[in-house]
Every structure is written in structure tokens, then in C-alpha cells.
Design a protein that fits this description.
oxidoreductase, Inositol 2-dehydrogenase, six-stranded parallel β-sheet, binds 1,2,3,4,5,6-hexahydroxy-cyclohexane, 341 residues, nucleotide binding, globular, binds nicotinamide-adenine-dinucleotide, 15 strands, seven-stranded mixed β-sheet, NAD(P)-bd_dom_sf
Amino acid sequence: MSDLLGVAVLGAGHMGADHIRRLDRVVSGARVAAVADPDAARAKEAVAGIEGVAVHTEVEAALDAPGVEAVLIASPGPAHQEALLAAFARGLPVLCEKPMVPDSAGALRVLEAEARLGRRLTQIGFMRRYDAGYRRLKALLDDGRLGRPLMLHCVHRNVSSPPGFTSAMLIDSSVSHEIDAARWLLGQELTAVTVRRPRPSAGAPQGLLDPQFVLFETDGGALVDVEVFVNCGFGYQVRCEAVCEAGSARIGDDQGMLVTTRGTAGADVPQDYLVRFVDAYDREVQAWVDATRRGLVTGPTVWDGYAASVVAEAGIRALESDTRVAVELAPRPGLYTADGH
Ligand SMILES: NC(=O)c1ccc[n+]([C@@H]2O[C@H](COP(=O)([O-])OP(=O)(O)OC[C@H]3O[C@@H](n4cnc5c(N)ncnc54)[C@H](O)[C@@H]3O)[C@@H](O)[C@H]2O)c1
Ligand SMILES: O[C@H]1[C@H](O)[C@@H](O)[C@H](O)[C@@H](O)[C@H]1O
């Protein structure tokens, strides 16, 4: 391996361009070696000022570009399956943005493909596991001081949804974060989903069922509720409160600096995830680079990505049928039993 890990970034949109900046200027030990995006102008803009980057419109050409030793997938969810399988075929380590693969059949194909390789190559981009608040909550729940967790109350609000965002994507794109966070925080699998919703907000695009209230049951007897509201208009807010037998703990209320002037007191509210989770993304990508350079794979696994896809798909069926839908996971391959949670 060369001094700096050569990374091919697939997709140079909002997230891809931010990861390109991060690889170039924030994390140590890596460099952007190639970029693939069917929108060549967007890719060129994302790498402007960075030397030695091969820009391609085809994924395979970027993966085969000189100096590419690892892949960061930041294309839209439906393109991830093909990209993951192409990376596996080349034995390249991967950081794949969430959702790993939105549909469960495709997610199972990826799970089976990596299990067939017999070694893990992939970290899934569930960056909340790298957020300071979530890590403190996880440590507190794990040390047992608060007793058995009974409920998680979660809030996930975006200022506005991007064009083309569907009612199903509130679950498989947005709530996928809470699905992973709940599995990780509790160390439990989610077993059933119910979705209720109020009359859609007047601020939501025509036809979008926004907000939604999603309720998960777990195999440890806990309940997890998520208010997801992706066109709230007023701020990017992500909160999680754990209610346990001997206490509760809540994260996501940090206000930063409180400014009082002329009879009012207030603080800035982040307007998007790139601001709210900047430290988490930085730590996530640094952890991936560090592990990859040592020949290791750490963090959320393909099993976690697969489980999130199955749970989200059950949630979409629950939304569409207005019924409680059970989650059916395939058997967990041995490759993922050691440190899946
Ligand atoms: N972790 C997070 O908090 C977070 C935040 C935002 C987005 N995401 C995820 O990142 C991914 C990208 O989202 P985004 O908001 O950047 O989308 P985007 O639409 O802004 O950008 C996607 C880019 O991928 C390109 N593209 C399309 N098909 C491609 C293909 N087959 N190969 C390579 N590039 C292709 C598009 O031209 C576009 O430039 C999604 O999986 C999304 O869920 C994660
Ligand atoms: O793709 C984005 C991203 O995952 C954000 O973290 C989330 O807040 C949005 O709701 C989702 O659409």
C-alpha cells in the first residue's frame, strides 16, 4: 500500500463532494485518486484544485484507475449494489453510504457476495455511531447504570427534502439512521414495524406523506418510536432519549453558544446534516482510512446494512398497508457474528 490510501469516490453530489473535500483536506492518510459520476461537470467541480485525480463517468473505469486502493460509494442508494459487487470483484475495501442497498433482495445479494468472499471488505456509512453524543449514550446504556432500556424516543427533522424524495424514502433513507442507531444502542434486532401519520404538513411537497410516526418493536422487548419530518422548515434536528428502568438519558439538545441581546436569548439551529454531523463524518472517514491502511475492517457491517434494509422495507409495507408488519431476517452468516453490534 502506498503512503496515502488512494480512494475512488463514486458519486460527486452533496455527500460525495463533501467526502472528497474531507479526504483531501481533513482526514490524514488518504488521497482522492479517482472520481466517477455520470455528471462529468459535477465531478470536475468537486475535484477542482485537487491534483492527480482521474475523473470518469463510468464506475468501473474509476475502480480500475491507477492508484486506486479503496472505494467510497456516495452515489444514490439504488446504484450501490452494482458498485459494491464491482468493488468485491476487485477485492477493494469499501466505505458505502447508507442505505447500503434500499431493497432487501439486493441487500441480501450483497450480504451473500461478501460472505462468499470469506472476509469483510465493507464499512457502512451509519455515521451516528461516530457522533460524540450517540457514543456517550451507547457507553451509558452499556455500563448498565440506568438499568434495562425500555424505550427510545427519536426525532429526525430535516428543513426540506430534495427533489424526487418519496414517502417511502422517509423510512429507507431518513429513518434508516434510527434503525441502525436503535439496533446498535440496544444491541437488539427490530422485529416489527407500525407507521402512523398525521395529515401531511402544508409545507410538504404535494403527495408526500410527511411527517410520519414510526414504531418499532425489538427482540429484547423494547419499543422505539421515531418522529420523522423531512420538510419541517425550521431546522435540522436529531434527538434520541433512552428511557430505562432506573433513569433516562437524552442527546441532541446541545444548543452551542447561547446569545442574549435586546430582551431575547437564542442559539443557531443547524440547517442540515453536513453541519450537525460534521464531526461524526470526519471521525467515520478517519476510522475507515486508519483501519483500511492496517488491513482491518471496522464499524457498521454489511449485516447491519442488510438488517436496516429489511427493517426499512417492512416499514414501507407498514406505511402502505396501515398494518403492523413483522421483520424477517435471513440467518446471520458466521462472518458477522464476532462484532456485528
Ligand atoms: N450519511 C448521511 O447523513 C447522508 C447524507 C446525505 C446523503 N447520504 C447518502 O449519500 C448518497 C448520495 O446522496 P446525495 O445526497 O449526495 O445525492 P446527490 O443526488 O446529491 O448526488 C448523487 C450523485 O451521484 C451521481 N450518480 C448517479 N448515479 C451514479 C452511479 N451509478 N455511479 C456514480 N455516481 C452516480 C449523480 O450524478 C450525483 O452527482 C445516498 O446514498 C444518500 O442516502 C448520506
Ligand atoms: O440522505 C439524508 C441523510 O441520510 C441525512 O442524514 C438525513 O437526515 C436525511 O433525512 C436523508 O434524506
